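Sequence only, no structure available. Ideas?
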Amino acid sequence: WCDVDLTDRGRSEARAAGRLLKENGIEVDHTFTSVLRRASFTTNMALEYSGQTWVPVTKSWRLNERHYGALQGYNKDTAYAELGIDQELVMEMRRSYMTRPPIMENDHQFWHGKDRRYKELSQEQLDNSRAESLQDAAARILPFFNSQIVPSIRSGNKCLIVSHANTIRTLIKHIDDISDEDIKGMSIPTGIPLLYRLDRDLRPVDPNIELEFRYMVEPKGYTWATSRMNGFHGVYLGDLERLQDIQMKRDVTNRDWQRIILRNVARQLDEADGTGEDGNGDGVLETRQLYFQIHKKMEEKEFGNMLLLGKMKDQLEYLMWDRKQQYLTMAGFESILDKLHLSSEGSVVEPFVAMTDTDAREKRAQEWYEMLALDLEEECLIK
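Reply:
I predicted one. C-alpha cells follow.
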C-alpha cells in the first residue's frame, strides 16, 4: 500500500471533524482505523479535538484503502498514459464494482510484502491484496467488521471508524444494503463525520423518523449519492455546500468516463470498417451500426444506467427514424457528444425557464442551423 502523510488540508479536516463531534455531542467508546498513517493521524487529531483522547483504538490492515495494484502511487488522471493502459479501462477500474487493476509485482516500490505491518498475513492474503476491485476490498473488510466491530457495538459501545473512501463506501453498502450499481455513484467526503444509528438487528434507523436527524445533502446531478431512494440512512455532520461540491465533482468524473466510452465505441466501429487510406476507418459511421453498438454496450450490467449513453442512443434513434440519416462523420458524432454533455451538466433547472422572444428565436435558429449542417454533411456523404 502507498502510505502517504496527511496534507495540510487533511490535518485541518481532521481537526474540524473532531470539533464537529464535540459540537454535536457525539461520544465515542471504541475507535477503529487502518494501519496507514493518514488514517492514524486523522484518528488522533479527531479524538483530541473532540476531547476523547482516552478512547481505545483498534488498528487493522483490513480497514486499509482499496489496493490499486500496479496503479498504486500513480496519479489517477494520468496513469493510463504512464502505464500504457486504455483510458476507458482505467476509469472502469476506478468506478466499477468488480473490475481489478493490474496486479502489483514484488519489485513495485509500494509492495507491502516486506513491510512488517503485514508480517502476519498469509501468502494467500498477500496474493489477494496485490490488486483489488471494490468487491475484493469488501471481502477483506467485512470479516473484520463482523468479527470485531459488530461485537463492540452489540456490547453497547458507540464506535467510530476512521478509514478511507472505498472502505467507508463498502461499509455503507453493507449497512444500507445498497446495490452494486448505486454504490458506484456515492461520493465519500473526507473529514466529515457520517452518523448512523442501528437497531438491535444492526439495521440502520431511518433519520426521517428521529426528529433530530436530517439530511445534509440533496441529491444532485446524475447520481443520487445520499438519497433515501437508494437506501442511504446516514447523516453527515458537515457543510452542505462542501458536500454538494464533492458530489458535483464526482458527477463530472462519471460523465467524463461516459464520454470516453462513447468515443471508444465510435472509434472501434470506424476502425472495423477499414476503408480508409491507411487501412483504418474513413471517419464515416453508419448511424444504425453506431446505435446498435451503443445498445449492445448498455446491455452489459456495468453500463446499463449510464445517462450519456442513453441520451446518445435517443439522439441516434431520432436521426435514423425522424431524419432518415444513414451516416454520420466522426466530427458530427463529436458535435452531438459535446451538445449532450453540455446539456447534461447535472445542474438544477427550473421546470419553466422564462425566455424573451429574441432568445427564443435565437435558440430556434441555432437548432435549425445545426440540423441543416447534419443534413448537408449527410448529403455530401451519400454523393
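The longest helix spans residues 240-273.
Hope that gets you unstuck.
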